[in-house]
Amino acid sequence: MCLQCGETNCGRYGNKHSLGHWQKTKREQEATMRVEQVASGMEALGHCLALGLEDLTVWCYECQAYVHHEKLHALIKHAEKIKHGEDGCTACEPDAAPSVGTSMAVQVHAMHGRLGDPAWAAPQLARACDDEARPGYKTKKAHEYLDVPEVLDKKVKLLAELMRKSKNCVAYTGAGISTSSGISDYATKARNSIATSSTDGAKASPWAARPTPAHRVLVGLHKRGILKHWVQQNHDGLPQKAGYPQNELNEIHGAWFDPSNPVVPMDGTLRTDLIEWLLEWEDKVDLCLALGTSMVGMNADRIPVAAAQRAKSGIGIGMVIVALQETQYDLSSALRIFAPIDEVLTRLVVELELEVAAASSGAATDTEQIFDNLPYDEKGAFKSGAKLSLDLREGSKVGIVNQPDWDKKRWGPMGVVIQAQNSLQEEGHIAIRMGGEGGVIRVLGRWWLDDARQGKVPHLPVVPWVEK
C-alpha cells in the first residue's frame, strides 16, 4: 500500500505494480518541477514509501531499503490492529513468558510452512529468553524452539524433495550458520543456547575459524548442481574455506577476506555490482534456503521474500527457513524447520546421497607471494592472454579494485603488504595495511590467488600500485 496516496497494488515482487506506481509518480513530479527547484538540488521522489500488507514492513523505493523510523511506529501499530484485530495476535505473543517444554502457539503454517502437514506436532520451546533477538529491527523474542524428532525427520525428507525439484536454488545465510564454528552472532541471547552448544561457549578468532558441517554440505550441494548460488550476509570467509567458489558467492554486506569489499558500516553503501547481482538472482530464484538469518529487514532479505511471493502466485517453490528462533516471515515459508542448521544439513546428506569433503586443518599448501602471468589487465579485470605480475611480499604496494567511494575517501586507494598474524600466515592469507600507520588492516584470502592463476574470478581485489 502506498503511504503517500493509499493506492494498493500487488507486492514489490511478482508483477511489480507497486514499483510501477512509484516510477509513474516520480515521472509526474519531475515533469512539474521548475528550473530553480532543480538548480537548488531538489529531487523528485515520487510515492516512494510502500507498506507491505503481508509482513507490515515499509520499503523505500528511492533508498532501495527497508525503512525504520519513529514516525512510522504508530502507523504500523494501527496496521497490526487492522490485520490481527484490536487485541493483536494474543496467541502468538502471550503476556506471560512461555516455559521450557511448552508447545509453540502460532498458526500452523508458521510452525511448519504451507507445504507442511497440519497434523504434525508443534515445535517445543527448548530455551526461553524474553529479550528481543535483534533490538531496533522488526524482530521476535530470542526463544529457541526445536521440532520433535519424528517431525524433523519428515521435514528433512520434504526438504530433500523440494531441492530435487528446484532449478534455481539459492542459499541465503546469516550469522546462525557460523555460530557452531565459534563466531558470535547478534541474535543469540538465551543462556546455554543450542546454537553454541557444540562449542561449549568457546569463541574462535574470526580469522582462524573453520567451516561448519553446514558450510561443507552446501559446497557438496553446489558440486552436485543442486545449489546454484549463495548470498552470504556474513563476512567470515567460511564458505570459501569449505571450498565454495568465490565467483558463485555474493558477499553482499562485505567480506573480511576481500580488500575490495570492506564490511559496510551504517553510513556506507552496498557495492553497486553486488546489488545488481542480487537483483539478477531475485528474479531467478525458485527455492531459497534461509539458514540462520533473523530476516529483520535488510535489503538482501528481498531474495527469500521474492521466492515466497512468487510461490504464492504458483511460480516456483518458495522459501525454506531453518532457524531456532522465530522470524517475521515464518508464515510465508513453504517449509519451516526449527533445528540446528548443522543437524538439518547433515541429515540432508543421507537423503540426497551427497558427497561431502571431510573437515580440514586449513593449513596452506602454497605460500608463494609473487604471482606472474596472471590473465588479468592492469585494472584487475580478467583478460585472456594478459600476463599481469602481482608482488605480495612485505612492503609491496597494491591498489584496490572496485573500491567503494566511501571506503576510498576514508582510507585511500592504496595499501601496503605487511606481516600477517600467525593464524593468517598459517592459512596463506595476505595482510594489507591501508591509510598508513594507525590505519586499517585488510586481508586477501588465499583462494583469490589460487583462483586468479586459473582466471576463475572476473576481477582481482588488488593490482600492483602505480604511482601517479
The outline comes out as globular
Helix content: 25-40%
Q: Can you identify the CATH class of the largest domain?
A: Alpha Beta
What is the first-to-last residue Cα distance?
A: 52 Å
Give the amount of beta strand, in percent: 15-25%
CATH level 3 topology of the largest domain: Rossmann fold
Record field, number of beta strands: 18
Describe this structure in words.
Helices cover 28% and strands 15% of the residues. It contains 13 helices and 18 strands. It has a 6-stranded parallel beta sheet with strand order 8-7-6-9-10-11, sandwiched between helices. α5 packs across α10 (341-352) and α8 runs parallel beside α9 (302-312). It is globular, with a radius of gyration of 24 Å.
In short:
This protein has 468 residues and is α/β, with parallel strands linked by helices.
Characteristics:
468 residues; alpha/beta; Rossmann fold; 3 domains; six-stranded parallel beta sheet; 13 helices; 18 strands; 28% helix; 15% strand; globular
Q: What are the SSEs and their pairings?
A:
Elements: H1 17-32, H2 35-39, E1 49-51, E2 58-60, E3 65-66, H3 70-84, H4 108-112, E4 124-127, E5 144-146, H5 149-165, E6 169-173, H6 213-223, E7 227-232, H7 238-241, E8 249-250, H8 272-284, E9 287-291, H9 302-312, E10 318-322, E11 335-337, H10 341-352, E12 370-374, E13 388-391, E14 397-400, H11 405-411, E15 414-418, H12 422-426, E16 430-434, E17 440-444, H13 446-453, E18 462-464
Parallel strand pairs: 6-7, 6-9, 7-8, 9-10, 10-11
Antiparallel strand pairs: 1-2, 2-3, 4-5, 12-13, 14-15, 14-18, 15-16, 16-17
Helix pairs in contact: 5-10, 6-10, 8-9
